[in-house]
Design brief:
single chain, 372 residues, alpha+beta, Ribosomal Protein S5, domain 2, Alpha-Beta Plaits, eight-stranded mixed β-sheet, four-stranded antiparallel β-sheet, 35% helix
Length: 372
């Protein structure tokens, strides 16, 4: 490669199945037109030099008018070490090396429209874009394989550090569109859903930063601990309570914190199935979709404890202004949320929420990781 190349990948909304991918369940996600981009220029050494939009520009709709960037270098001529469990630049390079890719040096300039630390998978999309950029740069055929890119990104972000995350973000970003992701039995199956929404999704930034790993662990740990205690009752998965014959009353035999999380995930899995049936029916009821999104949010708030007062205010204000319903997006504990709304109500909803200074954006469905 002698000329500069450009790649990009989208953020996503999780419609149904929030916090369930790492339980071996299913997710419905849609890629949106907030993208992470990378421009790649070759070097003659074994250094990958990354210039990336400054992390202080972390909220929705903010422009990089002053061209603020941060710079990092990964020298893979020597063994790579990690400073912490979010040191994703060397982990990405290390992952590619471990998988047998013959790397070379690059200068990579990265920009993003995605709010940082707000549940919009900014780190996952950054890694997906970085992997796509490097694979395009070395001319490897895997650069054209979104599923392969997603799995490499999951390895670099989660497996390399033993972090408590799932594959939803990497898959939804790399594959794009509206997708049903099934993580049962340790496998990953992706299926595109052929549906175009008549309404619009509106994203809002609560302006609250969050601790993603802490929130994920606080949701995942009690659920898995509860399921472990139920193994002697023949329960192997949350799905057993909905698809099988496991008695939901068994959850009440657990310690209160475990019972609360398990019951919330049982209800969220039921809501996921209802949402999937609605989307696949070909007879979309927009009001029903909003109702299901809000029901999902209730479990995330009351069962898993991952909403905030600000997010609740935004969602309620948006619904009062005409939105069908909505939920937080991502791990929760702050960050972004969204609503689904009639097209004609979008301006009023943006105005009602914006009065308190919370940025909003009407979204469009988008394609996955691509060469631009």
């Amino acid at each position: 490669m002698s000329a500069q190349i450009c790649v990009s990948t989208p953020s996503r909304l999780c419609l149904f199945g929030e916090h369930q991918d790492f339980l071996g369940l299913s997710v419905i996600a849609v890629a949106i037109d907030l993208r992470f981009s990378a421009q790649v220029t070759p070097r003659d050494d074994k250094v990958i030099r990354i210039i990336i939009r400054d992390e202080s520009l972390d909220f929705l709709n903010v422009q990089n008018d002053k061209a603020l960037y941060q710079e990092y270098e990964v020298d893979f001529s020597k063994p790579l070490t990690y400073r912490n469990d979010e040191d994703f630049y060397p982990s990405t390079v290390n992952t590619l090396l471990k998988n047998g890719y013959d790397l070379r040096g690059f200068d990579i300039k990265m920009d993003s429209q995605i709010p940082i630390g707000k549940g919009m998978c900014s780190s996952s999309t950054m890694i997906v874009a970085l992997i796509k950029a490097i694979l395009e740069g070395i001319g490897h055929p895997d650069a054209k394989d979104p599923m392969k890119i997603a799995l490499l990104a999951f390895q670099a972000e989660v497996e390399e550090f033993g972090n408590p995350g799932g594959k939803m973000d990497h898959m939804a970003s790399a594959l794009g569109g509206l997708v049903h992701l099934d993580f049962a039995n340790g496998d990953t199956k992706a299926r595109s859903l052929n549906h175009t929404f008549a309404g619009r999704f509106i994203l809002f930034d609560s302006l609250e930063r969050k601790d993603t790993l802490r929130v994920l662990a606080s949701s995942k740990t009690p659920t898995l601990a509860g399921l472990d205690l139920l193994k002697e009752q023949g329960v192997k998965s949350i799905a057993d309570f909905v698809d099988g014959d496991a008695d939901p009353a068994l959850a009440d035999t657990l310690p209160p914190a475990y019972a609360k999380a398990v019951k919330a995930n049982i209800e969220d899995y039921r809501i996921f199935k209802e949402g999937l049936a609605l989307i696949e029916s070909g007879k979309m009821d927009d009001a029903k979709l909003g109702e299901l999104l809000s029901a999902h949010q209730a479990q995330l708030r009351d069962g898993l404890g991952i909403s905030t007062d600000t997010i609740e205010w935004i969602l309620e204000t948006a619904k009062a202004a005409g939105a069908y319903g909505g939920k937080l997006n991502g791990s929760g504990g702050g960050g972004c949320c969204y609503v689904y709304a009639p097209v004609e109500k979008c301006d009023a909803i943006l105005e009602a929420v914006g009065k308190r200074g919370y940025p909003g954006k009407v979204l469009k469905q988008d394609t996955g990781v691509r060469l631009d």
